[in-house]
Amino acid sequence: MGLLDDTIASIEPLDQSAKRAAGRRLDTLTKPLGSLGYLEEVVRHYAAVRHDPQARFVQAALLVFVADHGVAQEGVSAYPAEVTAQMLRNFANGGAAINVLARHYGCQLKVVDMGVAADTSAEGLAEVIYRRIGPGTRNFMTQPAMTIAQARAAVETGIALLNETAAAGCTLVGIGEMGIGNSTSAAALLSAITGADPALIAGRGTGLDDAGVARKVEVIRAALRRHQSSLGDGVEMLAALGGFEIAAMTGVCLGAAAARVPVVVDGFIATAAAAVGDRIFPGLATRMFFSHRSAEGGHHLALEYLGARPLLHLDMRLGEGTGATLGISIIQAALALFHQMATFDSAGVAEKL
Questions:
Q1: CB atoms within 10 A of CB 348
Q2: 119-178 pLDDT, tens digit each
Q3: Of the candidates 257, 195, 286, 178, which has an alpha carbon nearest to the alpha carbon of residue 232?
Q4: Fewest 10 Å CB contacts: which of 31, 91, 252, 267?
Q5: C-alpha span between 300 and 297 (Å, rounded)
Q6: For position 349, what pLDDT does the model report?
């Protein structure tokens, strides 16, 4: 057995006793029962995933994976493929939106090159972790995006990075991505998983016009027909239609479930990775937090398919883990209330008659 198989085998059910214990403490805090609304469910869910009735929090981290996609050759992005490497440098220099939010909320940020077409490893980008599977995927219009071995390696890279992050003491992890062409890959995966027509799933990505979106939809439909025989298995699906960064995020989701670390899923593309993880291990999505409802494409359909309730709805569609970071801030706020509010007994406040 390899790392992926070992990880799947070690995933345990959610800890319902920890969830109930956290709920009992919530009910003793100086507030009307249930008055913090969904924040109370956030705490209970965190405790259940962590198997920790005390819902202890140490540190949050963001894992942002970057890679190029061969399908960008089909004109499915409003930006050229060179932008992926340029944004990788921007991340390394601290100038992207995710850098700002990670600094603002005190989250560790790890940027991982999973396979950018231009290899920047010789440039001394100290803030980038290099785990390159290859110089971008192949064009899935003509052949599978990856080999099965590459897809599995990318998933296992995500698992390994999650394990390292958890071993360093992080108790909450967000996932994000960047890669020109990856909204097409994500839309293809979500169409395959949900059964929804690509016209309902695919969005404007980096800013396509109507003709560009129509082209994108036709590319996805053609790819789904070409790779139909590979769509029943999660890893094969990733190999056919995915990207190195999407597969790595799938690995983080699987590894986090095994390590009892809640994952905060970003938007459209990260949700595609989570959905593939749920295909590999049914029920995986119940162990995650979904940070926001993206304005990209049919993200709401994917969330409904997974039975997921997003924490926020801000019409965001940037990616990079920006929504995940805001979601982490909501979870941190819920946990702060849980730990720092007085109880009725300690404050000497009378309870409801």
A1: 9
A2: 999 998 999 999 999 999 999 999 999 999 999 999 999 999 999 999 999 999 999 999
A3: 195
A4: 31
A5: 8
A6: 84
pLDDT band per the 50, 70, 90 thresholds, residue 221: very high
Q: Which of 135, 157, 154, 114 is nearest to 70 (CA)?
A: 135
Please tell me the CATH code under which domain 3-55+338-347 is placed.
1.10.1610.10
The share of the chain scoring above pLDDT 90, in percent, equals 97
Maximum alpha-carbon separation in the chain: 70
For strand 172-178 and strand 108-115, is the pairing parallel, antiparallel, or unpaired? unpaired
- pLDDT classification of 350: cutoffs 50, 70, 90: confident
Q: How many Cβ atoms from other residues are within 10 Å of residue 88's Cβ?
A: 27
- Which residues in the chain are classed under CATH 3.40.50.10210? 60-332
One-letter amino acid for residue 216 of the chain: K
Sequence length of the chain is 353
CA distance 330 to 310: 11
**For 287, which DSSP code?**
G
Record the pTM: 0.97
Hey, what's the torsion of the CAs at 172, 194, 67, 211, to 10 degrees? -130
What's the CATH fold of domain 60-332?
Rossmann fold (3.40.50)
CATH 1.10.1610.10 domain locations along the chain: 3-55+338-347
Q: Give the model confidence (pLDDT) of 92-130 as tens digits.
A: 999 999 999 999 999 999 999 999 999 999 998 999 999
Catalytic (active-site) positions? 320
Question: Which residues have CB under 8 Å from 194's CB, separation 6+?
Answer: 201, 275, 301, 302, 305
Tens digit of each residue's pLDDT (9 = 90 or more) over 192-212: 999 999 999 999 999 999 999
